[in-house]
Design brief:
- It is a single chain.
- This protein starts with 12 loop residues before the first helix and ends in a 5-residue tail after the last helix.
- Helix 1 (13-27) runs antiparallel to helix 2, helix 3 crosses helix 9 (200-213) and helix 3 (55-70) runs antiparallel to helix 11 (231-247).
- The protein has one domain: Rossmann fold.
- It contains eleven helices and seven strands.
- The strands form two sheets. The chain has a five-stranded parallel sheet, with helices on both faces. Strands 3-4 form a two-stranded antiparallel sheet.
- Helices cover 52% and strands 10% of the residues.
- Strand 6 (176-180), helix 8 and strand 7 form a beta-alpha-beta unit.
- By secondary structure, it is an alpha/beta fold.
- The chain is globular.
- Bound molecules: ligand PTJ.
- Ligand PTJ binds at residues 32, 34-35, 38-39, 41-42, 45, 79-81, 105-107, 161-163, 180-183, 186, 199-200.
Length: 252
């Protein structure tokens, strides 16, 4: 079915549209098949959260904006799912911050990085990472291959829909990691410095709005906001929200 033929009055229109975008992403060689499975898991969490940005996520998005504005060299990482779901939103955030986007993938084939870079170029943005020229230590996957001008040099990296290994490697390399992950129990969520437990398509524009709102905010105030943020408390809140629903079902 074409995007324009999706029934706009369908109660699950948003979800249909996203699935359609990802399907298109796979067809264009941007998104991996595994990305579809990962999205399914994310959707299940989002369903339980009522498909809206909850209070813990709003706080995390505010703190993420402060961290990104305080950073010397922030970089936003792009994978196959974000390339299909919210490329314009990722570009808008990079422009609000005046920083670069870098494609970084877990799954092959090698040509997918170039396809994602070409997709962003069509949308008016040059991505880093199509021709990686540096290696992030401690990682065996494709994700180790980074750009010297981007993730390699970054002090703060935004990693939407991530696997825990890279989060750990980035932290070991002395970088601050901001993750966007709907699963508050995931290794990424627990390993990141700051975790936004929200749908990436809502989280990225929310962070952009906060960045714009903070543009004239003094550095000292931004530091205060970033320091006051308690990642563990946010994760506990998200897990607690799920607990009555998951524990209530009788004997396992
Ligand atoms: O394009 P690649 O090769 O870099 O691969 C990207 C995926 C996402 C396939 C890869 O990184 C992967 O396998 O990730 P995981 O380990 O499945 O983790 C993805 C996490 O993102 C899971 O915890 C999901 O719950 C979560 N997630 C999925 N969809 C969304 C999401 N979080 C926020 N917004 C979503 N839309």
């Amino acid at each position: 079915m074409k995007t324009e033929n999706l029934p706009k009055n369908h109660p699950r229109y948003r979800s249909l549209l996203e699935r359609h975008r990802l399907e298109e992403g796979v067809r264009k060689g941007l998104t991996s098949l595994q990305g579809l499975l990962a999205h399914g898991r994310g959707e299940a969490f989002d369903y339980l959260f009522g498909e809206r940005t909850r209070s813990w996520a709003r706080k995390a998005e505010r703190a993420a904006a402060a961290e990104l504005l305080l950073a010397r060299h922030p970089v936003l990482s792009v994978n196959g799912n974000t390339a299909a779901l919210c490329p314009l939103e990722m570009i808008a955030l990079a422009r609000a911050l005046g920083c670069r986007l870098e494609v970084n993938l877990f799954y092959g084939p090698a040509g997918r990085r170039k396809k994602i870079a070409a997709h962003f170029k069509e949308l008016g943005e040059e991505l880093l990472g199509a021709k990686p020229d540096a290696v992030l230590k401690g990682l065996k996957s494709n994700r180790a291959r980074v750009d010297r001008r981007g993730i390699f040099k970054a002090d703060v990296v935004l990693v939407p829909l991530e696997d825990g290994d890279r989060t750990e490697a980035l932290r070991k390399a002395g970088k601050k990691v901001i993750a966007i992950d709907l699963n508050p129990l995931s290794r990424t969520a627990r390993k990141a410095d700051l975790t936004v437990v929200d749908h990436v398509a809502r989280a990225v524009p929310a962070i952009t709005r906060e960045v714009k709102r903070f543009k004239l905010t003094p550095t000292a105030k931004l530091r205060k906001i970033a320091l006051a943020f308690d990642n563990r408390a946010g994760l506990r809140q998200a897990i607690g929200f799920l607990s009555p629903k998951t524990k209530g079902g009788g004997k396992a």
